[in-house]
Amino acid sequence: MERFAQYIDGRFEQGTRSFASVDPATGTAWSQMPDATVADVDRAVLAAHRAFHGAAWAGLTATARGRLLHRLADLVAGAAQELAAVETRDTGKIIRETSAQIAYVADYYRYYAGLADKIEGAHLPIDKPDMEVWLRREPVGVVAAIVPWNSQLFLAAVKLGPALAAGCTVVLKASEDGPAPLLAFARLVDAAGFPPGVVNIITGGPEAGHALTAHPKVAHIAFTGGPETARHIVRASAENLASTSLELGGKSPFIVFADADLDSAANAQVAGIFAATGQSCVAGSRLLVQAEVRDAFLARLKAKAEMAVMGAPDLRTTEIGPMCTARQRDRIVGIVEASLAAGARLITGGKVPGGAGYFYPPTILDCTDAPDAPCLTQEMFGPVLSVMTFQTEAQALQLANDTAYGLASGVFTASLTRAHRMIRGLRAGVVWVNTYRAVSPIAPFGGHGLSGHGREGGLAAALDYTTVKTVWLRTSDDPIPDPFIMR
Ligand code: NAD
Fold this sequence. Notes:
2 domains; Aldehyde Dehydrogenase, Chain A, domain 2; 38% helix; alpha/beta; binds nicotinamide-adenine-dinucleotide; globular; 15 helices
């Protein structure tokens, strides 16, 4: 069995504990992963803390940090196919998506490489004639970065890129489900030449995650995962008072008006819910369709869902791969069954196929007469679309915003004025109009409500890893006047 190592203080380590990682397409163990202990976490954080204050990192100019990130970007681009194969094997994400996504991950590192020496402070036109006052943008310190199993290389890049550009050091914890891609990526970090301790990559589950987020030397926690874990993390950070950015789940509305290009909207809806086998935080999992086009649109979707090729994720022809874990597949089965019991009607899918692996087919549930169906409110993280019908624009908006989440949303309409009204009214961190699931390193991404807070991507994300130091410099040679009043 292949063995992977974690990466602490510039060294690869097998660790004292390990666990077997399972290939979700077959349900059999294929590799052995180190399982970080609390002591491993402590060593990783202390290494990051030393590196943060050490001359090898703190003494680098921002331009030199950018050069290291450029080198990392080149290495990721060069190894994209190899990394894609590892991610597909360990998480079941289809090779078509992993290979395209990882090639794009290199662009995220390039974006932040270029940004490193453009994170500027400011000079203030202060209201005192004998003072110069300016702001320095300084790195916050050690960052704990935690990612879930889906798109780990991507979710790591949106944290590592801005954190390293800002001058922070990082302990990145891979998910216990499918950690291999990040452990393979550690070899590229090492080859890029970052000083030891600047980037540490460990594994482990809740125990390691808790130890990391509660560690007194952690200054910022960048987390992607579910809301329940986020609550644990916020509680843990009550100890170290670290700042947090939380990228959580969603129950994103996908709204189709009668004047929309239905073929285009159907393709986007497939991208929004069946691509990545639905294991996507931005999954457009609630279809809201206007009554006039409901049957025509659902007929298109049903045909596409039934034509989607489900199978081995490493085949280029495969469109639907397995769920990452049996636990995840069983959870989906449970929510679909409860939704059917609550009155939802099955349009297609809904049946676990025979054979090995954690597969679940593209599934569409009509919830028009089942407003209490759990599939409308619970994030499923699988290829299950819940359908509601609306009559008016106001009703579409009301249904769309009827969620505790606020991550993404999609609107399909030919009307420019309506698009603008919807953009204004939707409570979500991202609104896609006549498109869905588009991302870029240049565009901030994130949500509010149960979808979390903070932004990844763009300049704003890099600023999240900085703190402002206000500098006062007195320019007068005269003695300081009356010391008993504030100046
Ligand atoms: P999860 O919250 O169970 O786990 C995520 C990570 O948190 C894992 O690495 C896990 O080991 C770690 N963890 C678990 N307990 C912890 C603790 N007590 N302290 C610290 N860390 C702990 O999430 P999951 O089920 O693996 O992933 C699916 C979730 O991730 C979904 O809700 C999905 O929407 C969300 N997600 C969000 C985005 C986004 O950008 N908004 C992107 C992808 C996934």
